Amino acid sequence: MRRVSAWKNWDDSSPGDFTWGISLEGFPQVIMWKGSKEFYHGGHWSGLGFSGALELKANPVFEFKFVSNEDEVYYTYSLRNESLVSRIVMNQTISTRQRYIWIEKAQSWRLYASVPRDNLGLDRPGNWDIMDWTQGCFLTEKWNCEERRKHGFAKLSGLKAPDTSHSWVNESMSLNECREKGLENCSCKAYANSDVRGGGSGCLMRFGDLWDIRVFGWWSGSIC
């Protein structure tokens, strides 16, 4: 797997430990690392954009493309206006990926977008900023498969989609088929369409703990 790496500092262009790439564990998702530790999840590709990256929406500056098949997985972007000049900086100092646009009249670079931004200025435990969610939500009762089958899943919307490291996908299933498949598997904790375009299609099921959920964006899915 290839990653984009920051410089060690502004004077040393050798690779730093702040990196950005696509994790192929489970359903592919964009992740930033600090060393070997996951620092930020940009989410999986939903058909419209990465589920945790609100800055990747229709805009006048650039367009983007994501390809995932049996042979390759990659993400590209291109400028809509070839007269524009843009650059991306992996900032080791503040652990942020920044996109700048050159403003000809001002003869200067303007910050257009930065990532991560969803963990700044929010009122929650400080450990969450370093992706330690042990103080988040937890089960108050022992996991019971029969009760789960009886009560089913609860639909939630407007959330940042959880981590997909432990997941399963079938792009030909309907959402109802996905639900039934999830109810048959006691380990399934959540399900959703793998592609949200055109009313939704495909099935993406998650297993194990549901990491990195927060009120954020446009993800819609059902959890147990």
Describe this structure in a few short sentences.
The protein has 2 helices and 14 strands. With 224 residues, it is mostly beta strands. It has a 5-stranded antiparallel sheet with strand order 10-14-12-13-11, covered by helices on one side. A 4-stranded antiparallel sheet has the order 1-2-3-4, with no helix packed on it.
Structural class: mainly beta
Number of helices: 2
Q: List segments where confidence is low: pLDDT < 50 over at least 5 consecutive residues.
A: 119-123
Mean of residue pLDDT values: 84
Kindly state the number of beta strands: 14
Largest sheet, order of strands side by side?
10-14-12-13-11
| Radius of gyration, CA atoms, in whole angstroms | 19 Å
Order of secondary-structure elements: EEEEEEEEEHEEHEEE
Distance between the termini: 33 Å
Instruction: Give the biggest beta sheet.
Output: 5 strands, antiparallel
Strand percentage lies at 35-45%
Helix content bin: under 10%
Which descriptor suits the 3D outline?
Answer: elongated
